[in-house]
Amino acid sequence: MNTYQQVGQQQDTHSKVIGYLLWIFGFTGAHRFYYGKPVTGTIWFFTFGLLGIGWLIDLFLIPAMDREADLRFTAGPIEYNVAWILLAFLGVFGVHRMYQGKWITGLIYLLTGGLFLLGVLYDFWTLNTQISVRNAERNNGR
């Protein structure tokens, strides 16, 4: 039985280390997107972390955001950390989609620059949910 399938143990879907690394660029909202908070991530992006004040406060909120993400999202064979790193650095090439097994949309992203960057923006909003659904399907044998 894999770690993510053990009953009664909290799953660890997100990493505080990656959260803090993304926090360094927090004025862009990257850490908030990572922890499944796309609305505030977008607000941080357009306000430079609410003029830096929200960004500094988030230094202390990351452990709570990490715990909440661990409870909210489904663990499984697709690792959130790997997918987020692929999205952050290779999103326009669709590598994060290929990693999830979404080969057709991954190739479309590769040929269209992340579907003209709009697809990458969409994935910043929805990647956690996409992975959670894929993991739930795989955990249930679909």
From TrEMBL:
The chain crosses the membrane at residues 17-35, 42-62, 82-99, 106-125. Its main location: membrane. The keyword RNA-binding does not apply. It comes from Pseudomonas synxantha. Keywords: Membrane, Transmembrane, Transmembrane helix. It is a multi-pass membrane protein. This is TM2 domain-containing protein. It is found in: Membrane. The keyword Transmembrane applies. Residues 13-60, 80-125 form the TM2 domain. InterPro entries: TM2, TM2D1-3-like. GO terms for cellular component: membrane.
